# Entry
Amino acid sequence: MLATVVLPGDHEYPKCRTKRTSYEWYIPKGILKTSWMNKHLNLVPALVVLFYELDWDDPQWKEKQSECATKVEIVRTSLQGRNTKVAVVLIQKKTPLPPGEDLVASERAATLCNSCDLSGKSLFVLPHTDHLVGYIIRLENAFYEHAQTYYYTEIRRVKSHKEFLNKTTHQLLFVRHQFKIAFFSELKQDTQNALKYYRTAYSLVHELRAHETNMLEIKTMAGFINYKICRLCFQHNTPLDAIAQFRKHIDLCKKKIGSSDLAFEHAAWMSKQFHSFGELFDEAIKLGLTAIQTQNPGFYYQQAASYSQDRKQLAQQLCQAGANYPPSELGDIQTGGLDFYGQRPWRQGHQSIEPPDAEKEKTGIWTLQIKERDVPQSELIIALLSNAVAQFKKYKCPRMKSHLMVQMGEEYYHAKDYTKALKLLDYVMCDYRTERWWGLLTAILTTALRCAYLMASVKDYIIYCMELLGRASELTEEQKLRIEKNLIKVLMNDIPDPEPECDLSSEGVARSLWNDRMASAGSKLLTIEVQDYIPFIQCKAKFQSPSFHVDQPIQLQVYLRTDCPHPISFNKLAVILSNQEYNQWCVVECAGQESMSLLPGKPKCHNFSFVAKTEDVGKKIEMTGIELMLGSETGRCVFLSWRGAGGDAASTHEALQASRSSRRWGRGMEARRGMDWDSVTMQHSTMVISRVPKMSVKLSHQPPALNNEMYCINITVQSQEEVVAKDVKLTAGLKPGQDANLGQTTHVTLNGSTVCDDTAPALLPDVPIGDLKPGERLERCVYVKCVSTGSRVFLFHVAYSIDSTVEGRQIVCKCHKDETVTIETVVPFEVSVKFVSSKFEPLDRVAVDIPFLLMTDVLSLSPWPLLLASSSLQLLTMNTNTPQLQSQMQEVVLQTDECASECFCLRCPLLANSNNTVATGQYLISWRRKSSRANSPLIQTAVTLPHVILESVPLYIHAELPSYGRVRESLSVRYHIKNRTSLVQEVEMAVEPSDAFMFSGLKQVRLRILPGSEQQMLYNYYPLMAGYQTLPQLNISLPRCLTTNTHSLRRFLPQRIFVKPQGRQLDDASIAAA
Amino acid sequence: MAVCIAVIAKENYPLYIRSLPTQNELKFHYTVHTSLDVVEEKISAVGKSVGDQRELYLGLLYPTEDYKVYGYVTNSKVKFVIVVDSSNTSLRDNEIRSMFRKLHNSFTDVMCNPFHNPGDTIQSKTFDGIVSGMMVPPG
# Structure
């Protein structure tokens, strides 16, 4: 970074004084000249560059060269005595050749250097061509080097002075030289060394002999150096060093107050130190430094503000004296235009311990004191505080922020900007209130009350008075008495007494403002929301009970208590309810002149009661607010208004503490002495509920319900009312709010004579029953059909209306009595079905056109006896094999777990379609509970029979044989073999020999059967043994049809036959023998 | 020796504050109140790592120009704050710790009193005595 200034060639630079060669007789007049820093920053250059347009091959080279040399000479003369470097830049139109190639150029460059007395390093060429930026950057670097060399020599020069100095007379110069070295180092952009020299300078400053006359100078210089050190530390990213340096600085300087008459000056200086450091810190943060909650610029701004406050106080004390001084005598003392930093204008350059002119000194001090009076102290303080607030907000210090805002508010109060003061104080008051710091709240309220008084803001004044009289206030009894007196004055539309510690001048203004307020007709009525404050009147209200029956009067109580020292009277108390029609019953107003009063600390209870409207049954009545009127129409009416059932900002916590308290055990005793305020709990709402019914509803039934049956529930309603119950209505059925599917599968009807259909509803609403006289009884049956199993809740709701009198008012009350019952629905019986062959062997597939058996089992699951009235089959594809299908179940009673079985012989005809799975049909059972009345309807339960898999048999064989045989008696067996295919079948048949039989007939035969025709084979079997005997095995094979073999055919044939033993012949001989 | 000793409830309202009667009492109230910012921050910083055994002593909360404020938080989140004059360099960290420990013990005794309702302000002569012992003798 280079600071560059464009100046004309003949610019006059500051003259250089002749350098001192010896310091022997020199006595320095001060530490640092006020002009020095500006001179080296802005006036004296490190390098002067002369820009001259000249090409190497310029035709007028000679002339131009000498002109350039003259210009350089002019600059040189002007800079006589300085080490400032001079350089020349030739601005050329042509692109230069690479170095060494242009011989003309190098020759002319040498001559130019010679004539200008320049070194080769100080001559540059700036071709005005394409790569301008690149050339400029290179030039800049070259200039930077030259400048650094300049500052290096300057540092060397200042350092060289050191050997001439002696410690007794030149102490000031030690500081000055170190400071200059450091400053030059900084200009040289050597910040590390700069920091080092500044540190030495800092310690040297504090080695100076300090006395009252030079204290300001020392502090000023110390402040400068400290600022530089801190800044460099932050720049080097060593913030801890900066903070440590600053702390050291403050600790060293804190006590260096200097002249006690100008103590405010010291406070101002301290404030400035903190302020500057805060700014440095803040700047460093903006450049990326991270600060923390406990170390952020806010603390420094806060401290700066604190010193400003000190300054203000000191100024107020010290500047009283100067007030009477005639201003004309002060004219000759000018402040400003100093030669040295931190000196007094009336004795510049004076370094002796005693002031040279005591009179002048006095005048000077007075002048400064008078000037101090014009300083906008509060503005300065507020600005610093608001800086601090912004910081603390950023670093999560809400309480610190609040504290500073209080200070700001107080400062605005001192600056007489009461509106702003109140705004700030109001804002933070709430924080202190919720955190329950009563001491601090009281202090803030006191200031706020003063503001409100001085502004004559009636509403604010009343609010602050109320809170200062309240239980959170930590004021003394005396102060409270005074405030209450003032409050009463305001209520009477009178002017309150001024607050103590208000300044006299403002009081006059306030008084006239109050007079205006008194006179103005408006604003006599004030409503104050007190819920969020801690007012001096506490209010709690409650409904006696969380619910009231409509035929009872609703009772509510309002408890009031005051915390102020004197009794306070009020003129009206009103409770506002959610239904405004009731409000008229909840008002108490004083009659005539007599007002109601509250004694300090004595709770007072007001009772209200009213009768709810019958329309409000089932509704909630809520307290929406409570209003208490203080004052009267003649003076000022102030309505204190609570939302809901009262309470305030502190009451929740108090209630909690009271509930925790161990004292509650002893509350019985306290209750006798009087009401315990803390134990009063608020109840802000109540329900109006219907009158208690005096009606009994009884249910009788026999659970569980059976699926699909008409389940009978008997309801007995008996009135126990003393008067006639009118419009009795019954609602019966499924209780709403259950599974939606239940609504679809439940049907309720009053008609039990037939089975209801699906159109019957799940809930029968409002079945009129008529009137019921006292004591009268009524019965009804309700039939429920549950299509699905599971448990259901049924509701029986009897509603009626009745005339009643509450507190002399006639009302028609609607009452209802509910009865619910949970009923389980179960399956009445289980039906199982199986297909078996004519040999009672289970079948997995059914052969077409061959008879088989269907067997059904009905197993009762009902806990109650079931009556099975009849059963039937509804066949789809099957035919019965018997001419008339007759049910075997007629009027059968099944007990629990009993089973009823049936058997049907069926045959499946040949079907046209090739489907090999067919539906069989349905099995229908008509039944009812055994216990139900004889005329109650029968329930048809249909059981879908399983599908059967069909198979076709190519060859069917069946045997025709007697049911039993007898030993040694021939029995004839005829086998029918039927070809069911459309092909001619060749059949090989053989009968295997058997031990139990002799037989006659073809033992082995081979025959052909035409399509659709039948072949009969007759055998005569002659049993040899008695008992169950296996018939001789018939082996059949079909060579043409390989799928059918002996085994598949054998299933159609009987395996065994029972053979009876040979009976003794009842011949004549034996009879004769007998 | 301390110039102000305070006990703050879990909900951050004061249970006990005692400062040197010679000095501006209100200022100490503000000092203690503002120090709660740092206490809260320190507590919440610990809360993040679960199962971390927190040290009750929080150390120096923040230095003001004139005072040093130290904090201590019991497991039930009751805070103790001790304010010490900045010029008092004789007090070491260890001594502050032992002051807090003493205070905590005495506070525990107060809580053990069956007639004391936790959450109420502390009104105990013994506690007063312990606190007085830790304060600079006025004058």
In short: Chain A is about 35% helix and 30% strand.
